[in-house]
Recover the amino acids of this structure.
């Protein structure tokens, strides 16, 4: 164990880690197979665990496990689970120990029968709700916010599931996209601000729900529309009914879905993610220009922004760094010099490309600064004459309480350092961030349509300081995902 | 799946399947390692799943999984779990699908912190309790009776765990041996009649609990005494306190523990299991004699009784059947003639030993009769001139509601057939059972000290007919283990 | 790795380790499935690796791997390998590192096409042949004697496989049972003295070869006869032809097959193994009597002899030791006191049975004495008043060069210690071995019909002292199996 | 098996499959750990199997297995293998059955001791050599050309390994990069034309050999020079000696290493691979221009060429297709519509990017045309108005006999179809290949410095027609890799 070092598959260490992906489908003979395919398409949203709950003949089945979709599901399992409706979930990967009990979906038996739940997001009032519930004699078997929601639903006296769900969602606060499955109903729900994304699709007459549209592409389904902030869609054999789960707040999709999380081929809120990223690069090139010989991006997430920067600046885009695609979640490193080798193995600079050249390095964000410092160092070692770091988002200053892993926030470098200090830390010749106005320009829309709390600290759903403290005191690292 | 055939490791198909084994230890630096060793010793009580919950620095850890102890635990896991207290559990193996969610121990968070539970037995009023709890808004994530008990404990308003446990046990009915673990307490409890066994041991100043004494032998601990029917022992850093959990009923240890379930090297209620079995064979030889050339037993469980029979009858004991020890839980069988091959592979008669001879075949019980018919057939095929089947227990006529798998009861052959009919079914030349009086004689004690409801139908804890129906209607095959 | 301790599944540590099991079948539509079943029946002859080579449409397929038959073969593999002829092999388990490259069968391409070989035994002149072959430019990819034989066959100029095999066998010396498979022929061959066993069977018109008859029982085949010493049986679509591979020497089956290796339900040379063992016990009781309260055997191999002893002596046979059947090949042991725990876990004495009693403990052999000392100690700890050790074979004094693992011979305790010295070493009150004459009496045949070199040092095939030295200098621990 | 569908990790199905990667290191305390790291860096050259042979204390150890480097090696294995010298190998992945016996390195014992070999390439005269060797009594256990070389070396009478290797290489014909390891020597050798690449590096005073320079970058080693065509470098404790293994032919590096196989961050023959690819795109844009709205490349291999094209053409480069990085080697596909789903899942077009636009799709080659047709179809489905396919190499017309998998050659679409026919087949609006002169221009060097036989049919080492026939008749699909 000690000689192993967890390498985050989605980037270097110190990157932001989201989150989860959810999927649901109702009324399709291949519901489970399609959910399985969809989870492959959503795998970038979580590599720690995967699971599917399905319905056949009025009975819920569940299979989930630690690891990638390809590791968790076998042909036999898929065959055993076959049914006409299903929900699926992928969960993010962490560096530390992760608990199998926290894999989703969660399936519970309660007074109305069986209920499956899968959740992306984070509830800011989960600890209080949990304390209240425990005070009333509830037991918890996971550390998931999802389980809190299950308890709330079970305690609602109403006979109608939809009413119980709606009533329960009225009690919770935060960012969430939820899918629910019972023997006769599929429900999708999104938080009042729509912080976490959730889309509605259609295939062969059946309804689908997914965190991102790329899941619809994967199964050949048609994108219909996004689930609205605060909306709840209830799908039964009688079709789809929309109802309000919570008074709609101001819409505020997490802007980091565009910047980093979502797949480039997904469309969110009418905009293609790759195109937005490229536009971020273009705007960045206009407002934060610098003379150089080439532009390069940190693969894979920053390539779109880097090509945008290159085009706008009229400077050649080059592949300055190559990413090794064969490094799994754990990598056995030689002693001592091990870590350096490990990272060099993951990202390799192209000496012939960067040697003696002035390089503009585009990245999407800086969290702790360690990864950036490392990459700048790599380029310098490979002979780059100058390294100009350009970040396609504003400084990430404030922790997220709505679904992004808070464990990485301990040392948000921009929380207490200015740009010049960060530049020195990462060792770049120049460093510039995209200003907030640039973000708006690239999106082509005013920022009040998005949640930008991580840049501004203006939280839509107030996370009282004590709560934050509370979270850490309780050692709740892996909450609410 | 279709070409695989589950072979029950503990015997042929159609055998009774218990049950579970529990273990607990408090205040030993190697608590987890010792629990691991103890579970190996208790493995005969359950091969489906295994698990350990441990305490270190006031925090509960849990590891469990499907399969044998040797498959579920690795060195790394044991190291990660190391602590000063632990409980462990093994669960029986079933033929059909088995659900990982039902592995034990169960660990829950509730108002008093974290609580681990492991359970052997069955609660007859679990369905009603479950309905009541669901009606009050509880959610269930397993089909275990153990989870019912966890809910009851969590709902008790008292601050004291021991009071909460005692109060909860007052609400449940049935047969059970339970171990509980929190950050500061280990509790063991046994049902009012002591139907399921639970022993108390001591090692290096620490207290231990185990379903059978063979677990104490395995870890080098000293057997102290049995936990009394209705007793609850509470172990903390201040030592052990005994308290009554329920008014003691008439003691009634499950007599099948002697006949079939327990390991021959375990002592139960002051009697060694092998010695009782041998005595059963001796009495059987006296009261149900027959002329023959040799005596043989069905390996492994009936060998003790068979040697007793042989000695008493003055007829040579021979190894008439050899059991293949390398057949795992699943065995890939050739098509068509497959099943016959599979069973022949598992049990092989010694032609040279039985050919032309009159054979007394001793077995411990007949459940459905299919296994017996098969074994008698094997001996005849191998040339046995006569086969006299002797059963070292009375006819098994009534289903068990206190912890023995009810799924095998569907076709209790003795429920509606007399001995002669069964003899014809299994194809023996003669068939005789041990009479009830013989059972008492072999034990050297009156039968009212034991639960013999499976022979007499006199249930100590009444399972109302509707309940039984209820159980099956709810499709609760694998309850309460 | 360091904290793991290999527990030998076939017995305690320090036991003899044989050997291998071979099987062959020609002309059956389920040849591969039947070979798979047969390997289960032969698994006691080797648990380290397993393999099958099959023929379909004139092409040889091979699947082999480390581990038990149940671990190496899956349904899919068996399906892929389906064919009309096959050979199979199981290899013994060792304590130390074992090399996957040494799994059998060996399949080679050579001038006549493809050839599969599987081997039980050991060639005393393999090192010389290997040196000669290397001197002629041969390369070796394994340390198997089997590969030496393959080279010899390939170098024979004759077109006929049977001639090439016969010619090659004329060059090798030692003990062996061999099966060969090509696209059109199955060959079985046995060394000139018939040291290693090989039997001929018949099923549905097809011919079968197996190390022991229990493999025929497992597949439902009929035993026809043993392959004669020095005989070679050649099976093609035209039927079976017997030919002489080497001038027949004096027949000399390894007597340890009866004493320890073979399965009790196998018949060897017309005698049932269990019956011989029981007879060994009877004779032992007559010639080495002692007063005692009970007789017990070391499970599983000594149970037959122990019951024989008990019957002859008129003393009750009791189960004095119980073997835990769930301990796999590796067992994770707690630090420090670990080893003691591990062995106690594997064999548990029944205190109630042995306490205060005079115990006759029957075992089949003493190799290094450590296991015996340990078991005697277990019984004393459990309260036995006296422990009289009776060995159902003469003192094992000389290493075997014909197929029994030589690595255990380093410390043959009887090589330089007399019975009284060994008694003191193992801590028994009395110790007695079966004399050589007793062995003959139990078998009912003169000893010159068997290889008893391990007792007498009279080697049929002379192992020159330098050879033995040579073997160890080359570090060839796991040769020729 | 039937419901599984192998998805080639390096691209769609129908892509060219190379080959292998080799690595060697001599005289470094972390030789095995570094080899392990290097194999990660070379993993793109082969995903079917991986292996390492190492030397410690004069003894060779070997570990190899099927699967990725991350699957084959564990921490324990690496620790057990630790040594001061090592060679490593990765082997390509195939669609069909693959044989574990063909994993490399090969380690043999022969008259001079032990010898390890690892090989990238293909020998055109291997079948004849194999026949000759078999005629002389040799046996073969693999279908590897590597084994032929081992036999040749073993049969050389000379005492000196280097002489034996040199003498053996004089007998073989084809393309190869070889590394050899004995207890005291590391040898690297390259075929007379240098068709397959092999580089020499240095780290902490030790010498290294690798197929590509990216392996040196991964371990932090310095690139020294390429091994020359026909050169053999012999490394012992006395240092490195270069000697001629074969008369140098005209240097002729496989041009496909630049076009498709090598990693973009590797330098070959002084040129960076990414830079060459980008230049191929630039030249292609000049000589085969077309009006369009955007340029896109097939990820990952064609992205460099596509950005080159875009820059030269002054047309925006867009991410038109996103590749799912989480699809492993096998992917479980829903029935029926399965295949379509599977491929759509692997490559997803960005509708918002391509809809209504004229797209230039750049790919590196067309083998069978099925992948191209599929991708063109994807873009059209996503709404592309026009799709102009541009191939950054000349038409691939002739099979390769020097190390590229011949199994894909069955239907080389350009073998008998002209460009217009292929255009119709793939469904593009226009199709253009890079002309041969363009290839030269992009490389900046005359083509006679490269092997371009796959474009021209001018084979440097003549593969007589009968040989080719011979290969297929023998069913030798996976030869010599």
């Amino acid at each position: 164990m000690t000689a192993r070092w967890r390498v985050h598959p989605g980037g270097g260490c110190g990157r932001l880690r989201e989150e989860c992906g959810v999927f649901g489908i109702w009324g399709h003979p291949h519901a489970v197979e399609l959910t399985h395919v969809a989870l492959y398409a959503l795998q970038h949203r979580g590599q720690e665990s995967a699971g599917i709950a399905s319905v056949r003949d009025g009975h819920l089945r569940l299979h989930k496990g630690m690891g990638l979709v390809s590791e968790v599901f076998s042909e036999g399992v898929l065959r055993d689970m076959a049914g006409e409706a299903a929900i699926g979930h992928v969960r993010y990967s962490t560096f530390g120990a992760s608990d199998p009990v926290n894999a989703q979906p969660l399936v519970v038996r309660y007074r109305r029968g069986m209920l499956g739940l899968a959740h992306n997001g984070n509830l800011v009032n989960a600890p209080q709700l949990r304390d209240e519930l425990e005070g009333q004699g509830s037991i918890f078997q996971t550390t998931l916010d999802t389980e809190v929601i299950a308890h709330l639903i079970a305690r609602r006296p109403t006979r109608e599931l939809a009413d119980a769900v709606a009533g329960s969602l009225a009690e919770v606060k935060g960012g969430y996209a939820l899918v629910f499955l019972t023997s006769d109903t599929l429900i999708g729900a999104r938080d009042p601000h729509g912080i976490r994304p959730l889309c509605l699709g259609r295939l062969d007459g059946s309804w689908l729900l997914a965190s991102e549209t790329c899941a619809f592409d994967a199964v050949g389904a048609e994108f219909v529309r996004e689930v609205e902030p605060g909306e709840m869609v209830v799908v039964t054999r009688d079709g789809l009914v929309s109802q309000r789960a919570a008074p709609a707040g101001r819409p505020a999709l997490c802007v980091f879905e565009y910047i980093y999380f979502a797949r480039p081929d997904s469309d969110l809120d009418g905009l293609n993610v790759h195109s937005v990223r490229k536009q971020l690069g273009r705007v960045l090139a206009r407002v934060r220009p610098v003379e150089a010989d080439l532009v390069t991006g940190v693969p894979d997430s920053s390539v779109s922004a880097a090509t945008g920067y290159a085009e706008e600046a009229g400077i050649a885009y080059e592949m300055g760094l190559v990413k090794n695609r064969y490094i799994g979640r754990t990598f056995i490193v030689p002693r001592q010099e091990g870590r350096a080798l490990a990272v060099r193995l993951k990202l390799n600079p192209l000496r012939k490309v960067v040697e003696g050249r002035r390089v503009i390095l585009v990245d999407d964000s800086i969290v702790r600064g360690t990864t950036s410092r490392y990459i700048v160092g790599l380029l310098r070692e490979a002979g780059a004459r100058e390294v100009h770091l350009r970040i396609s988002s504003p400084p990430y200053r404030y922790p997220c309480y709505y679904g992004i892993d808070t464990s990485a926030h301990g040392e948000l470098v921009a929380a207490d350092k200015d740009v010049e200090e960060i530049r020195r830390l990462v060792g770049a010749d120049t460093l510039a961030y995209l200003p907030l106005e640039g973000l708006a320009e690239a999106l082509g829309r005013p920022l009040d349509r998005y949640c930008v709390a991580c840049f501004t600290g203006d939280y839509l759903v107030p996370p009282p300081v004590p709560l934050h403290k509370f979270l850490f005191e309780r050692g709740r690292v892996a909450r609410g995902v």
Remarks:
- The CA atoms of residues 124 and 401 of chain D lie 6 Å apart.
